[in-house]
Amino acid sequence: MLEYAKVIKECFQKDIAEFIMFDSNLNQSVIDDLSLKIQEVEEAQRNKQLRDRLSQKTILVKKQMDKCRNIIQYSKYFIERAFPTHTSKLNEFGYNDYIQSKYSPSKMMLFMQVFHEMLLKYKDNLLTAGYSQKLIDEVHITNEELIALSNDQQVFKKHKEHLTNERKQAMNEVWEIILNISRAGKIIYANDYGKYSQYVLYKTKSIDVRR
Predict the structure, then answer these.
(1) Are 116 and 73 a contacting pair, CB within 8 Å?
(2) Count of beta carbons in the 10 Å neighbourhood of residue 190
(3) HSE on the CB side for 137, CA within 13 Å?
(4) For residue 45, what pLDDT is reported?
(5) Crossing angle of helices 133-188/28-43, nearest 10°?
(6) What is the dihedral of CA 118, 121, 126, 128, to 10 degrees?
(7) Which of residues 191 and 42 earns the better pLDDT score?
(8) pTM over 0.85
(9) How far is CA 81 from CA 66, 73, 112, 126, in A?
(10) What is the pLDDT of residues 141-198, one digit of tens each?
(11) SS3 for the chain, per residue?
């Protein structure tokens, strides 16, 4: 549609004197406005570019989720060594909530927060079982990284939606301008098939498009 708008603009520019005679409002200001709107659409990021950037951010979140799951599984080995027969203790670490959290970034963030709190609460038992302070710290850091990446992804989703709406708005405005030019052009050149056809937005299968 954008390329066709440029063609309509070029035709209109050449025929502007006759348009002004028909309607004084169809003057140079219309060309200037149309040029500006076309530029806005061209400068706006296209949907594919936005989708690609969002996809990259989603991949980063998924990789961080993998990192969270890996450190949880690693930690479980030492938690179960520290509390081999204490199901209630294991559930304090979120064992009974893990399935619902493992594939949801928002739920995983909450799970990791509680998980880290329990690691601190039972640190002495875990260190005795062979766990380390470095791993306790890594659980917290891994969760903070997930929070940052997920927030960045969600903010960009909103930004993408805003940019997409802006581009659609600009495209609609371009369409309205060329539609007005088309309507006038078909009246001005009703008896000149060659010129008339330049201002037809939708051609029919009929030989005579002047309808």
Answers:
(1) no
(2) 11
(3) 3
(4) 59
(5) 150
(6) 180
(7) 191
(8) no
(9) 23, 13, 20, 8
(10) 999 999 999 999 999 999 888 888 888 888 899 999 999 999 999 999 999 999 999 9
(11) CHHHHHHHHHHHHHCHHHHHHHCCCCCHHHHHHHHHHHHHHHHCCCHHHHHHHHHHHHHHHHHHHHHHHHHHHHHHHHHHHHCCCCHHHHHHCCHHHHHHHCCCHHHHHHHHHHHHHHHHHCHHHHHHCCCCHHHHHHHHHHHHHHHHHHHHHHHHHHHHHHHHHHHHHHHHHHHHHHHHHHHHHHHHCCCCHHHHHHCCCCCCCCCCCCC
CA distances from 90 to 93, 127, 128, 131, 195 (A): 5, 16, 17, 15, 81
Cα dihedral 57/58/62/65 (nearest 10): 70
The average pLDDT across 93-98 equals: 91
CB 34 within 8 A of CB 180: no
- Comparing 7-16, 36-45, 70-79, 140-149, the range with the smallest average pLDDT is 36-45
Instruction: Give the position of tokens 């025929």.
Output: 15
Each residue of 100-132: pLDDT tens digit? 999 999 999 999 999 999 999 999 999 999 999
